[in-house]
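Checklist before submission:
- one chain only
- standard amino acids only
- sequence pasted in full

Submission:
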Amino acid sequence: MTRAERITTEFVRCVIDYRRVAIFLGVLLLIPCAVACTGLRVNNTITTWFLESDPYLQSYYAYQKVFGNDEVAVIAFREPTGLFTPATLELLRTVSRRIGAQRHVQRVLSIATATAIEGKDGTLSVRPVLAETGPIDAAQAARVRQVLLDDPIYRGNILSDDQKT
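Returned file contents:
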């Protein structure tokens, strides 16, 4: 047996023989660590992760200057006669496209840009609920309405219960 093995074996034997004392000493050593941890603060600001000269940080600052924060902007649109008419869907598609084209906008989620996930034959397919281009007729508007109403992710989140907002 090597010297390291003898020392390790004796240490383990000592811990087992005096396990109550070892547990007490272990807990006693953890108390100052726990007290010290209460003073820890997490600094997860974006400036912690980037140099001031980083172009991505500069882009972030430009975004904040335009939009005021880096979170989510919510724009509510209310149509008293209901959202699922061809004209209203076309308007929402156009507005969503224009907002999405802004330089600092990463993504737009609206009833005009929503996607449907369908599982069939062991595969998942993700497709837009409303085509990105082309005319919208009443049948297509009705289909978009039904798909969004059937999906609990959209109902009550981007589509109000009365289907007017």
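Reviewer check: The chain is about 50% helix and 5% strand.
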